[in-house]
Here is the input.
Amino acid sequence: MLATLEPRYEIPSRRHFTDKVIPALYADTRAKVEGALQSAKRVALTCDGSTSRATESFVTITAHFIDDNWDAQSYVLQTRAMNDSHTGAHMAEVLKKAADEWKLTEKEPAVVTDNAANMSVAVEIAGYPHVRCFAHVLNLAVQRALKLPNVARLLGRICTFFHRSTSAAEALKRNHKMLGLLHHKLITDVVVRWNSAYDMISRFLEQQTAVTAALLSPEVKKNTTDISTLTDGDIRNAEEVVKALHPMMVATKSMCEEKSPTVSIIAPLHAQLLSDTLSTIEDAPLVKDIKCAIHGDLSKRYMSAEEKNFLYVASALDPRFKSMLFLSPSEVQETYAMVVSKAAALTGMQM
Here is the structure.
């Protein structure tokens, strides 16, 4: 086409892009990111690992800060192969190298990671303030509840049949129309996302009438011998699981709906969930088991004095939580005393 339009034009080669255009684009982008980071007074880093389909391990480090216009900014600093074992010492070396490379060491970066033991060791070795990812804390707590025998059995029976039987899936689709239900497909849970299990059970309960009709249809009975039916007890269990996990779902959604969730939200949500997962006399046995499992896991998180003080101060500085209703009066007084002390120290440094 170009030869017809303009025979004198030479199309740039692949080598031109790889040797000149892309390196120039990288250098220009890096200079802009470095300039933005240097203007930031403090920087937070998030560090997370991932594995490619080719089983190659990578570590991504992202920087977060508030710019001069009080807008939250984020930049992915690097995604690099991690060929060494993921020990705390090796991860600490990765963190420190990244901080040195991007000239962030003097900004005393706080680091957010998952709850893996090696990451806790890494941040401790590096000497940075450490915050455990609250979304990961929620996932760990709920996963503990999902492993309860009655819950695990229920999850294993819901929806899998329709994903491996074409006749059952077709019967389900037909019953949607007959019963006037929305054509929503059944959902299969994903292990690393606890809320997918919640969505799976909720969708099953929504489509329960169509599911039952599909399982009783002649073509499904004719073509399949291992039909997985659920008893009335299973249905009650499903309803109880959804009820027990609802507070965790609300907390997860509140985190996801924020474009840039900040550390100030952790303490209020954590305190609310500890309250919501206390068992009551009215709770069914399964609900009590789920609440007990979640409460037991959450109660072990953010319990050190250093972590508590860090989170409480952050919440005190957030206008949404400055009343600190989740703390006792003495804890509120102590928290604001720390805020005043830190503010005075900063004022002294500026003078």
Summary: The chain has 16 helices and five strands. Strands lie at 44-51, 57-66, 72-81, 110-113, 130-132. The chain has a mean pLDDT of 85. Residues 185 and 203 are 8 Å apart (CA to CA).
